[in-house]
Write a structure and sequence with these properties.
By secondary structure, the protein is mostly helical. It contains twelve helices and no strands. 31% of the residues are buried.
């Protein structure tokens, strides 16, 4: 599926070619089971939590919608007490309300993000409280399937580069971008391989 991308990465970067050989076939795929809104809400809920704890809270959150899929208009109508009962912190509750109010008010065109360029998607999503550049980049990669995203702030990416290139120190975000420039237009695939190389998991 990603033969052209992998051939490009092998050609432009012998170090990454070694990583590809070590990791094996590319199994990157974007999630198709969530709406754009659900994907951003899930990212907010999962922030700073272990996978198991986040999955438990996310399951309780989904159950609050009475069999419907979570959507902005429904969340706006839920009480703080009910949302808190799912295990959401006050901070995350505030983030989810801000997301939902922006969607309902039309200032965040959530259903049309896939039609926008990468930078525009990041610009729109980072207006939401609690959604930073990293979260927006994960949305671009794992929801929209954009193939040229390099999350330069991600610790796993930095560790993967440090290990693969045998650097003494973790690279700065600027150095990550410099090293990764040659991977374009397939920086997402390169990132996937770097995560796998250190047995990390970004999704």
């Amino acid at each position: 599926m990603y033969r052209k991308a992998i051939q490009h990465l092998r050609t432009v970067d012998p170090v990454l070619a070694g990583v590809i050989d070590s990791v094996g076939p590319c199994r990157f795929e974007a999630a198709s089971d969530l709406s754009h809104y659900e994907s951003v809400a899930r990212a907010i809920i999962h922030q700073q939590l272990s996978g198991k704890a986040a999955a438990t809270i996310h399951g309780r959150f989904e159950a609050l919608f009475g069999g419907e899929r979570p959507h902005a208009a429904a969340l706006v109508g839920l009480s703080d007490e009910l949302l808190r009962s799912a295990g959401l912190s006050r901070q995350k509750l505030g983030y989810l309300r801000d997301l939902s109010e922006r969607v309902c008010g039309g200032t965040l065109p959530i259903d049309w993000l896939h039609e926008l360029g990468d930078d525009e998607v990041v610009r729109h999503l980072t207006t939401v409280k609690g959604v930073g550049q990293w979260t927006a980049q994960m949305f671009l990669m794992f929801r929209l399937g954009r193939l040229d995203i390099l999350p330069e702030l991600d610790l796993g990416i930095r560790k993967g580069i440090q290990q693969s290139y045998r650097l003494r120190k973790l690279p700065t975000s600027e150095r990550v971008l410099t090293i990764g420039a040659k991977w374009s237009p397939y920086r997402t695939i390169a990132s996937w391989y770097l995560w796998r190389s250190i047995d990390g998991d970004a999704s």
